[in-house]
Structure formats: structure tokens, C-alpha cells
Design brief:
Length: 285
């Protein structure tokens, strides 16, 4: 970020904090009304008191000065300002900090309508969790990923107890012979997938499930261990995805991905058929 962009971000952060402070009623927060107020809402010293910060710190923040903002201080400020989820996310983004409570929000119960939403999509579609395990998929995805998403959970591709690990994309790509037959340019795609996963997973590497996934793949797959050690990082982008389907032959799709607004850790992936693809008979969801 260049100096002008950083200064603009700090000004936006200060303006946001001031606007949120001025919309709060002292009485609603249990504070005495005090003498006549020249401006609406809380005074800076009152916000400082509620958030455990100094009045000078709050003043400099609202003035857009270049100060260091810890995650703990931002959390206290967010609670003092009574920010909602979207407002809190905006505060942390303006401060260029990762919200320590974001992972807890991502673990909230999934919307009840989510499976029906995925099932209603005509093209192959599925939802990935932060470990890149498929949570929900539709009939078109079950048909396309024959040997993985069709039928019962296939285990974790390493001969252990069947379960959710069998739906993990990384374990499918690196541990299943089916993946090597299904995915054209398998080795190139595998390299790209590891770089994309590293970019997304690094902020969550303290999560025991992600650490266990990476450690298990490094143990079970020499290819994954080699690619993980390469330290490549790439954004998860769309593009053409080619398959050699056991029944439909050569297939080509345009992949697009979306982050769920209410669950930032979940990704919706859709594969849009390209011209020339046969129309498959979709399996039941």
C-alpha cells in the first residue's frame, strides 16, 4: 500500500469511528447525561473509558494519525461502539488487521437453506469449508466427480475409516487414483491447488483441523510434501477446468467461485459447461 492509500485508509477509519461514536446515546450505555453537549453521542473521553483506551489514542485515531492499532484494542473499541458483524469487519479491514473473532463467526451454524440453494444450481456446484472439504454438492457435481462425490462417503483415500475426510478436495487430488484419471493436466492442477490452499490457509494455520490436514498430506503424499515445501502462493481464481469423464469423455468447464456473505470461510464453486460438452444425466443429490 502506497503512502497516499495508507493515509486515505486512516482517514476513513477515523471518520468511521467518529460517526459510530456520535450515534451512540450516553443514557443507553448507562452513562450520566452530564452538562449540555455541543455534539451528539458520546464524548471521546467516554468512548475511551468504555473501551479501556486513552482519550489521546481515541483523538489521534479519529484524526487519522499514523498510530499502531492492536487487535485487542480494536476488539475493545468494537464492543464499546456496539458494532454489528458487518461493522466490526469493516473496522478491522480499515485498520488492516485480522479480526480474532472472525474464525468463531465462520464456525457458526450453516443456513438451513444452504443445501437446497446448492441443489437448485443447474451446473456442477459445491461448497468448500476452510479445510477444503466439500460440505454440500448437487447432482451435477456428483455426476462429474464420479468416484468421489457420488455414492457413499469413500473414506479418506488412505484406507482409514470412511468419513468426512473422504470429501476433502486435497486428499482426493493427491491420494485418489480416480483424480489422476479424471482431471486433465493433473500435475499442473495439483501444483496450483497447493499454492491456492497455502494462500487461504496460512492465516488459519493455528486451527488444529487445518494443521492435521497438512501434516497428514505431507506424510501420505510425497507429491504434496514436495509442493508444500516449494512455498508457492497464488490466489484462488477461476478459469478452464478440463476432465476426462469415465462415461462422458472429454469435458470442459469455466470455474467461478464465490465467498458466502454470512460465512467468510466457505466458498461456493460452480463449473459452467463450455460449448461442445455433452449433456450428462445428472445423478440424484
Amino acid at each position: 500500500m502506497n503512502p497516499s492509500e495508507d493515509a486515505e485508509r486512516r482517514r476513513a477509519l477515523g471518520a468511521f469511528v467518529r460517526a459510530q461514536r456520535e450515534r451512540l446515546s450516553p443514557e443507553a450505555l448507562g452513562l450520566p447525561p452530564g452538562p449540555r453537549r455541543r455534539t451528539p453521542g458520546l464524548r471521546r473521553e467516554e468512548l475511551a473509558q468504555l473501551s479501556g483506551l486513552s482519550t489521546t489514542w481515541v483523538t489521534w485515531l479519529e484524526q487519522g494519525r499514523e498510530i499502531s492499532l492492536s487487535r485487542a484494542a480494536l476488539s475493545r473499541l468494537s464492543r464499546a461502539l456496539q458494532l454489528g458483524r458487518a461493522e466490526r469487519t469493516y473496522l478491522f479491514e480499515l485498520a488492516a488487521r485480522r479480526d480474532p473473532e472472525r474464525q468463531d463467526a465462520e464456525g457458526a451454524p450453516l443456513p438451513a437453506a444452504l443445501p437446497a440453494c446448492v441443489a437448485a444450481i443447474a451446473c456442477p456446484a459445491y461448497i468448500l469449508d476452510p479445510c477444503w472439504t466439500v460440505l454440500h454438492w448437487n447432482g451435477a457435481a456428483a455426476h462429474l466427480f464420479a468416484g468421489w462425490l457420488d455414492g457413499d462417503a469413500p473414506g479418506d483415500m488412505a484406507g482409514e475409516t470412511p468419513g468426512a475426510d473422504g470429501r476433502n478436495m486435497l486428499r482426493f487430488i493427491f491420494l485418489s487414483p480416480v483424480a489422476r484419471r479424471l482431471i486433465q493436466d493433473h500435475d499442473a492442477r495439483a501444483r496450483r491447488v497447493v499454492a491456492e490452499f497455502r494462500a487461504e490457509a496460512t492465516p488459519r494455520m493455528t486451527d488444529p483441523s487445518i494443521r492435521a490436514l497438512v501434516d497428514g498430506l505431507r506424510r501420505d503424499s510425497p507429491d504434496f510434501a514436495r509442493l508444500w515445501a516449494a512455498q508457492d502462493v497464488q490466489g484462488r481464481e477461476g478459469g478452464l477446468r478440463r476432465f476426462c469423464h469415465p462415461r462422458d469423455g472429454a469435458l470442459c468447464f469455466e470455474q467461478v467461485g464465490f465467498t458466502l456473505a454470512s460465512q467468510p470461510g466457505l466458498k461456493l464453486t460452480m463449473l459452467l459447461p463450455q460449448a461442445g460438452n455433452p449433456v450428462p444425466a445428472q445423478a440424484a443429490p
